[in-house]
Amino acid sequence: MTKIVKKIFIFLLIIVALNSAFINLCYADDMEEDETEDITETEINEVNEVSKNAVEVPILNSRRCVIFDRTSKTVMYGKNEELRSAMASTTKIMTATIALENGNLQDEVTIDRKAAGTGGSRLGLKRGDKITLNDLLYGLMLRSGNDAAVAIAEHIGGSVEGFAELMNQKATELGLKNTHFVTPHGLDSSEHYTTALELAKLTDYALRNEKFARIVATKSTTISINGNPRQLFNTNELLGVLNGVIGVKTGFTNGAGRCLVTETKRGDTDIIVVVLGADTKKDRTKDSIKLIEYAFANFTKVNIKEKAIEEFEKWERINRNRILIIKGQKDTISLDIGKINTETIPVKETDRLEIIINTMNQLEAPVEKNTKVGTVIIKLNDNIIDSIDIVCGEKIERKTWLDYFKENLQICRTIFEI
Predict the structure, then answer these.
(1) Residue 13 φ/ψ region, left for φ over 0, alpha for ψ in the -120 to 50 degree band, beta for the rest
(2) How confident is the model at residue 25 (pLDDT cuts 50, 70, 90)?
(3) Catalytic annotation, pick one of 51, 72, 79, 92
(4) Do residues 306 and 279 lie in contact, with contact meaning Cβ atoms separated by under 8 Å?
(5) 27 pLDDT more than 50
(6) What pLDDT does 7 receive?
(7) How many CB atoms lie within 10 A of CB 184?
(8) Active site residue: 51, 72, 85, 89, which one?
(9) Which of 76, 250, 252, 402 could cross-link to 67 by cystine, CB 3.0-4.6 Å?
(10) Residue 23: DSSP 8-state
(11) Could you confirm whether 20 is annotated as catalytic?
(12) Is residue 92 annotated as part of the catalytic site, yes or no?
């Protein structure tokens, strides 16, 4: 072999190696097939046993996390929960949501070159394959197929870019100010990010769709590609193992670390736990278990609606007559409390719950019914949980000249009687 040939050969080997490294860097996503990191059911039970009675906030490996109560929409615990972060394949929660809201599940999708060539975690689709949108969604959420994500994006949005626009429109609609999407699968990009809290809010919204909830709760299923059956297993290691776990989604990229979004429901308590940036699969699993058990061991539901109404009624009996009605045909005012948005809230024994009532000292007639005259503020540890209007329960007319005449006449009668 000549020196020139050797140099060319070595050069080609370097190019192949660099290309391989580049692909692994860019497409390291949801490598759930690496079973060397898997946590066993026995290990899960051991972590659960240690965690379920813990009083102290758990020590976590994950960089960012949140426990989100679905009923009250409040944060029970958070760690860097509002810090922007890569989200890996938890992105697919939004992908599935957009597909369910804009697509026909019976549509047959033909896989093109771009979808078939998408790297990372794959359903295993090839160019020319035919599969329904319904089965693509199962491949997306159970197998975490990046190829399925691109196929869905192109079918619904016309292109990955068009689909990303739909994703960002929905994020804006949901008030997710620190969330932005570039792709339907979540491979690392500086412009593709969310926060643990906003991911929890997105998941809460997604779970209101019954089909989405059924998909993420599925442990295994059989789909059809080109009419041939293909069995899928859910990558969520807690599903079917930890008490009350319903779903939702795993994730991993080099930039995001190990991620897991979990819904757990026990009795009347329904929570979403998000962990982002764990070092290993075992770490993300252990952290999720610790947070789930911490939530159920330390928080109880308080009926804040009943407490607010009770406090308002006490306040009204004492203070209603202290509101001065200027130039009104009535001297007193009847008060009603408006709609209370938060019915129950999870509270720890050490939490400080306050109900603060403020109203105007005086009003000038005429006063229309339902005019706002004050506020009931519900606070938990100095954070405002709800703010409820206090309104006038009836219309109060302004005094006329005849009213003033009658008053003066009554004054005269009283003087002369004396």
Answers:
(1) alpha
(2) very low
(3) 92
(4) no
(5) no
(6) 54
(7) 30
(8) 89
(9) 76
(10) H
(11) no
(12) yes
Q: Which range has the worst mean pLDDT, 2-6, 13-17, 249-253?
A: 13-17
Has residue 110 got a pLDDT over 80?
A: yes
- Residue 52 CB contacts under 8 Å (≥ 6 apart), including other chains: 293, 296, 297
Q: Does pLDDT of 242 surpass 60?
A: yes
- The amino acid that residue 393 corresponds to is G
Contact 270, 296 (CB under 8 A): no
Amino acid at 329: Q
How far is Cα 332 from Cα 346, in angstroms, rounded to an integer?
38
Q: In what order do the strands lie in the sheet with 372-380?
A: 335-337, 383-392, 372-380, 353-359
Go through the chain and tell me how many residues it has: 418
Give yes or no for a contact between 240 and 218, defined as CB atoms under 8 angstroms apart. no
- How far separated are the first and last CA of the chain, in Å rounded? 133
Task: Sort 145 into a burial class: Cβ within 10 Å, 0-12 / 13-18 / 19+.
Answer: buried
User: In this structure, which long-range contacts are made by residues 45-54, counting pairs with CB atoms below 8 Å and at least 24 apart in sequence?
Assistant: 47/285, 47/286, 47/289, 47/290, 48/242, 48/289, 48/293, 51/289, 51/290, 51/292, 51/293, 51/294, 52/293, 52/296, 52/297, 53/293, 53/297, 54/290, 54/293, 54/294, 54/297, 54/298
Instruction: Identify the weakest region by mean pLDDT among 20-29, 66-75, 237-246, 261-270.
Output: 20-29
Q: What is the pLDDT of residues 142-188, one digit of tens each?
A: 999 999 999 999 999 999 999 999 999 999 999 999 999 999 999 99
pLDDT in the model for residue 28:
37
Give the pairing type, strands 362-364 and 324-326: parallel
Per-residue confidence band for 320, with pLDDT thresholds at 50, 70 and 90: confident
Of 151, 156, 91, whose CA–CA distance to 116 is shortest? 151
Q: Which residue of the set 62, 144, 290, 399 is catalytic? A: 144
The predicted pLDDT at position 278 comes to 97
Is a pLDDT exceeding 70 seen at residue 323? yes
Place of tokens 């000249």: 401
Q: Is 121 a catalytic residue?
A: no
Q: Dump strand ranges (E) for 139-227.
A: 220-225
182 vs 117: CA distance, rounded Å: 18
> Is residue 40 very low, low, confident or very high in pLDDT (cuts 50, 70, 90)?
confident
Give the C-alpha distances (Å, rounded to integers) separating 385 from 239, 303, 314, 361: 32, 13, 21, 25
Please state, in angstroms and rounded to a whole number, the distance separating the CA atoms of residues 265 and 270.
4
Residues 6+ away with beta carbon under 8 Å from 317: none
Give the pLDDT score at 164: 98
